[in-house]
Amino acid sequence: MDAATEKLREVFGFDGFRPGQEEIVRAAMAGEDVLAIMPTGGGKSLCYQLPALLRGGITVVISPLIALMRGQVAQMRELGIAARSLNSANDDGENALAIQEAEAGELRLLYLSPERLARPGTVAMLRRVGVTAIAVDEAHCVSQWGHDFRPEYRAIGGVREQLDGVQVLAFTATADALTREDIEGRLFPAPPHVFLRGFDRPNISLAMTPRANGRKQLLDFLKAHRGESGIVYCQSRRRVEETAAFLMSEGVDAAAYHAGFPPNDRNAVQDRFLREDGVVVVATVAFGMGIDKPDVRFVFHMDLPKNIEGYYQEIGRAGRDGLPAAAHGLYGMGEVRQYRQWIDEGDAPDEQKRIERGKLATLVAFCEALTCRRVTLLRYFGEEAGSCGNCDLCRGEVETVEGTVEAQKALSAMVRTRERFGMEHLIAVLRGDRTEGVTRHGHDDLPTFGVGADVTKANWRSIFRQLDAGGLAQVLPDEFNRWAVTEAGWKVLKGEETVTLRKPSRTKSSERTARAPVDTSGADEAVLAALKALRVGLAKERNVPAYVIFPDRTLIEMATALPRDREALGQIHGVGGRKLESFGEAFLDKIRSVAGTSA
Ligand code: ADP
Predict the structure, then answer these.
(1) Residue 38 in contact with ligand 1 by CB distance below 6 A
(2) Which of 153, 221, 329, 352 has the fewest Cβ atoms within 10 angstroms?
(3) Number of domains the chain is built from
């Protein structure tokens, strides 16, 4: 066993590397510049933490959020790794201690915000203490093509030069080609060694449902996930507050989070989420980047996410521990229209608007997809995969029907009204509703008038979305949202192509979906409960999140294997030397006493 594998076991308590980690660690140890693109939860942190442990000098870690830094430093210190952070949320004593330890050569990892890094005093200090590498977490923040652009990240390249071109290790979960090129150009003087790891997160089940009664759909979903920690994302602050209030009134242990709340309140919510089991945080996407919690069991999107990258990053916050987790989203055409309007009215350059419109179209196509969601998703990230068996489409929860005639009716309504009207007007024509607009334009005389009276409004809307998603019709980017037939749509009108549509929903489906509880079947329930209680106590005492003591998976394995001595305990996933030292006896005692009595 070589030094890296040994440290992995001894310090982190892991049996082996996850896919991709080993190559990255080796390249880092060899002094190469590295750009690693790995999905959220893939284990990026280890790729710089382990080399930092194995080498002399300090590895500086640039991280965009103070909460994220603090979580990691707490975790590192529990593992016995000399890590500190330098940031504005620390008191002066903590920051002085960090500098003192750095200067004494005791530190291995020093976490810094990008603002702090760029300060002249910091650079001078780093030159004095000797930096082995700069690790850049969430490296897509350097790119304005990414969705979390942070201008301060642009200073990293300059600092690197001031530190005599020290090694840079950059990590991100954002994979699209533009962002990647931008990161390469801005952080590295010469092309780095790029590692692109598989994006599949097979343990996360995927589902997307058209919004019918959003709150009821959410509640049904939460019923199937009672007692689990999860995040409900909403698109606006107001939606966050309303949804959280609704859930609390329904007896759900929910808390609201958005950037408009005072920092103290936000920290309190975040702390509760990290420390307690089963808290549901209702939040805008402001919540998440700083959340390093491995046992989030679900992510529910009340509203359509902004784009596929955002969506993937958000759902990636679930199931980092590799245990089953669920990602369920709702979507409606209203949001699609609204996002389109935001893009059109925004002041971004035309080129960027074009890119954003394209991203939105991809997202809508993903929502309305009729084949495996994971295949669609992974293809977006440049990966080919087979059907996953773990999404609503693979599970057969979305039924399809032959829909050529309906598609022809809708397309013909567009053509007959000279492609000058929006969806609601077209639906009124199809259903034979004599609205003021329909009569004023004389559209009640059209041959198409009333040909779709047998289809409900809601189902027509869904058909329109699918025509859009399928590229058969398009909404013209002007203020009227006029619908026009595309070339592919004309083929359908002429009868040259057929169309498959979703079977009209009678809702309900969300009740069946995405039931994926963590498998604790082999575990002794009494022991597991006792170990969880012990963990909460230890976490409180030390003022750290529960998973910093041990993650769920470790407790489940303990409650299954019921180790009686330190050696057996040391074999369990996540139990490294330092943790064995700190917590071994307490957990063994608990196992011995509870398993002893219940057996
Ligand atoms: P990322 O930053 O890529 O989203 P993290 O670095 O936070 O992911 O790692 C996600 C989880 O996986 C953490 O709980 C971490 O302890 C765990 N982990 C990382 N590497 C391994 C490994 N080799 N074996 C087992 N668990 C691992």
Answers:
(1) yes
(2) 352
(3) 4
